[in-house]
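Before going further, learn to read the protein records used in this course. Taken together, the tokens spell out the fold as the letters spell out the chain. A record is reproduced here so that you can trace the correspondence yourselves:

***
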Amino acid sequence: MKRNQTRSVQVKDLVLGGNDHVYIQSMCNIKTSHAKEVIEQILELETMGCEIIRVSCMDLNDAKAIAEIVSNIHIPLVADIHFDYRLALACIDAGANKIRLNPGNIGARTNVEAVVKKCKEKHIPIRIGINSGSLEKEIHQKYGKPTAQGMMESAQRHVQILEDLHFYDTVLSFKSSDPLLCIEAYKKASEMFDYPLHLGVTEAGTMMTSAIKSTLALGNLLLDGIGNTIRISVNGAPQKEIPIVKELLKSCNLIQNVPNLIACPTCGRTQWDMEPVVNEIEQYLQTVHKNITVAIMGCAVNGPGEAKHADIAIAGGKNEGLLIKKGEIIEKIPQQEMVQRLKQEIAAF
């Protein structure tokens, strides 16, 4: 699936835009000055498949901690800054690979010039984040409510500030908690700007509501070739976000080496405790980077037939199940051994 062609922007060793890769992004939920905890969280997110990480920068202590953080992680780090241009300068000096900052919100033109100058020196891109809930007062008054057109006007203001300073290493995002507004805004943006787009539905809620809203909005955009980086925002730990976004990208054929887990919904024919096995294997697969299909089926009636296209499968019976590899029944396994045997087969695949 070809992405819409955009300007290429380099973030550390990654190139956003100008290619068919959609990078997975997340954001730490720990205060950045607590560097050791932040590092631990980022390293865990890396093992799950996160490719870009964002941290907030609320004060100078946060900015100073970035030096320690970037020296202990492997993926690009984005520093999120609001209003205070001096924090942007400090984050860049500390080694941030990208900053998230709206140039129209950091005061005098000289402030913007200082940030742009340092970004040019360090080859650091800027992400401009347009949020439907925090548009400029006059734009909100003009339209009376958040609209895609208002979001475009806001973006044009910020982009123009950077372009007037001959700065073009820019990434844009147009987030809303309304998935339909997200679709409209990003489609307009893809026609109006040639900069890479970071996709997201903001304030999406719990795992369930976020998965639904984000799949509706971002799935539509991805299938239209729109988007170069993506975050699925979920309330709570960022580790919740990665499985959802990987599943979405996999379903859109935009990511490789992601396992595919098939599990039946269960019915009256199910005679074994299937849910704990499914849950544990799902968790295990989050750190497996292979193109492998694993099926866990609830009964021996339809299970063997439905699992025959899987690489490894279990078709459960009464407190036991048939282990199936590439459509062939290999052995019968007691339920208490299922998880261990499945993990062994996945590891050996």
Notes: Residues 148-164 form the longest helix (17 residues). The chain has a mean pLDDT of 93. The longest strand covers residues 328-334.
